[in-house]
Amino acid sequence: MSDDTGDVIDELFTVIEDRKTNLPEDSYTASLFTHEKGENAVLEKLGEETTELILAAKDNDTEELAHESADIVYHLLVLLSMKEMDVDDLRTELAKRR
Ligand SMILES: N=c1c2ncn([C@@H]3O[C@H](COP(=O)(O)OP(=O)(O)OP(=O)(O)O)[C@@H](O)[C@H]3O)c2ncn1[C@@H]1O[C@H](COP(=O)(O)O)[C@@H](O)[C@H]1O
Predict the structure, then answer these.
(1) Predicted-complex ipTM score
(2) Which of 14, 26, 43, 49 is least buried, going by the fewest C-beta atoms within 10 A?
(3) Distance (Å) from CA 28 to ligand 1 centroid
(4) Ligand 1 within 6 A of 15 CB?
C-alpha cells in the first residue's frame, strides 16, 4: 500500500463527520444528511451502487469495480455516521471474525 492511501478511510470518515456537523451548502455529503428522504437517500444510493458493482463484476471490468466499490464504501461510511456509529465499529466487527 502506498503512503498516500494508508489512512484514506479514516480521513474520509473524519471529513464525513465534519460535513455532518458544519453542513456546508456545496457539499454532497451534507446534502445526504439533510435530504428530504432522510436516511432513505443514502440507503437508495447503496442499493444503486451495489447493482452497478454487480454489473461491473459480471463484465470483469476491474476499473469500474474499483470505482463502484469506492462509491459503496463512501455511502456506507455516511450511513455509519448517520447512525452515530464509527468506522471503528466496522473494524471491531471484522477483527472479531479473525
Ligand atoms: N468519496 C466520495 C464520494 N463517492 C461518491 N460520491 C458522490 O456520490 C454520488 C454518486 O451518485 P451517482 O451514482 O448518482 O453519481 P454518478 O457520478 O452518476 O455515479 P457513478 O456513475 O460514478 O457511479 C456522486 O455525486 C458522487 O460525487 C462522493 N462524494 C464525496 N466523497 C468524498 O467526500 C468528500 C467530501 O465531499 P463533499 O461532501 O461533496 O464536500 C470528498 O472530498 C470525497 O473524499
Answers:
(1) 0.90
(2) 26
(3) 7
(4) yes
- Going from the Cα of 71 to the center of ligand 1, the distance in angstroms, rounded, reads 7
Interval 51-81: pLDDT, tens: 999 999 999 999 999 999 999 999 999 999 9
State the chain's mean pLDDT as an integer: 94
Spell out the residues 6+ positions from residue 50 whose beta carbon is closer than 8 angstroms to its own. 72
Instruction: Report CA(96)–ligand 1 centroid distance (Å).
Output: 30
- Is the separation of the CB atoms in 72 and 46 below 8 Å? yes
- The predicted structure's pLDDT at residue 69: 98
Helix (H) or strand (E) holding 70: helix 62-82
Atom of ligand 1 nearest to the CA of 31: 38
